[in-house]
Amino acid sequence: MAFVVNSTQLPPDDTYDYIVVGGGTAGCPLAATLSKYHRVLVLERGGLPFSNPNVMTREGFLPTLTHNDQSDSPAQTFTSEDGVPNARGRVLGGSSAINAGFYSRADEDFYERSEIDWDRRVVQRAYEWVEKAIVFQPELQTWQSAVRDGLLEVGVEPYNGYSLNHTLGTKIGGSTFDTSGRRHSAADLLNLANASNIKVGLYASVERVLFAPSYSLTSRQIANGVVFRDRAGGYHHAMLRDHGEVILCAGAIGSPQLLLLSGVGPRPYLSSWGIPVVRHSPYVGNYLYDNPRNGISIVSPVPLEQSLIQVVGITDSGAYLEAASNVLPFTSPAYSVFLRPSSSPLYLTVASIMEKIIGPHSSGTLRLASTDVRTNPIVRFNYFSNPLDLERCVNGSRKIGDLLRSRAMDDFKFWEWSGTDFRFVGPALPVDQSNNALMGEFCRRTVSTIWHYHGGCVVGRVVDHSLKVMGVHSLRVVDGSTFTVSPGTNPQASLLMLGR
After folding, report:
1. Any long-range contacts for 402-405 (C-beta under 8 Å, 24+ apart)?
2. pLDDT at position 359, please?
3. Alpha-carbon distances of 161 from 134, 137, 149, 174, 185, rounded to whole Å
4. Mapping DSSP to helix (H, G, I), strand (E, B) and coil, where does residue 252 land?
5. What's the confidence (pLDDT) of residue 25?
6. CA 356 – CA 297 distance, rounded (Å)
7. Catalytic one of 452, 454, 465, 473
8. Which parts of the chain sit beneath pLDDT 50?
9. Active site residue 473
10. pLDDT of residue 337
11. Is it true that the peptide bond before 329 is cis, omega within 30 degrees of 0?
12. Cα(444)–Cα(339) distance, integer angstroms
């Protein structure tokens, strides 16, 4: 892809039909599609994924999420005000280049509840375009097979086999890891672009969208370009040609942040930061959601392969069940005179079962921490502030308990004097799983993220049903920040489809 360059090589001023801010899960397929007939610039704040072994392999999933530096790592970590660690993609391909690779289409309700104007025939063709390029059928091994069998044993039925559709029951979903274990991501879809019409600038930090007066009856301002800074600190202006658009694809953290920094947001709040107000839009940064993840992890007595999400149980009680297994290096918790230092590390297999609730209903906010776009904004998700979310977590956690009691899980227990039992890493489920208060307390105490946060620029409040920013011209948002609900078991497929 010769059209992908370090942004230091881009001219200080140039014009384009479309400027796509964020070369992520939606931005890459969007740019590839637009390039067929239009001149497109993609500005991505990160670098290339292809040469990073942690990014490109299943084994690198956890190291990628946990290794973080201030400016360069593919995952930029942040911790919400709820105290839950999280991460956002900072690499070409965005979060599709650092996720667990699970691919499953949206549930039917999503198309109604999203309030986006969908043409379902185009939706179907878009899914197929993505799937032909980067989606594979995974091969189940020990842990994933056992979880599948256990889900069916405890009534998460019917068995739907390998399916990309969202259907009640247990199924094997698609994967963006191929059969050799190599990752494919939204970045691969740029191979389908018209190379003569597209330029992708890496390490480009877009500081703000530029506006000019509009003489339209419906809007006083029109987006006419962006200003961005390259890695060497040089400033560039990318400007729109007539009838062009700036399209924000920076995700549920980046898109609302950039709107605020560009002067689109609540007037009093922008004024408090000294940001000139382009458009009073009171809901920018509001209606921010994150689906809570809860679950358990056990040490396996038998060696297990590295596996990320492949099997999902879609229940009728508001929760989805998924599983993973990871081979982790074991370090002695304390120095011991009885343990000689080993030249070859010991490894443990940790197997996890988790549940994610649908929705969610609880919502939070995003606020600026700085006027520097490179600084993470301050986010709060307010997990379980809506009691329905807590009820669904309790339902899902009980189903994990059922799964642990299934015959399919017997092989993962250790033999002890009193019989067999699991060896948990971290909190176990409450012994009395019929007690709502105990189960609710478990949900609150063990809440973590499954990285499916969304919202902040939602349809009907910040953008219209065609994802155009309301009240200004030539500015659109095409990413998960427009969603009020997470699509299906995993948003990746829907975001790739949305971009296409």
Report:
1. 402/154, 402/155, 403/147, 403/150, 403/151, 403/154, 403/321, 403/353, 404/296, 404/353, 404/429, 405/154
2. 96
3. 20, 11, 12, 11, 24
4. helix
5. 98
6. 15
7. 452
8. 335-338
9. no
10. 46
11. no
12. 38
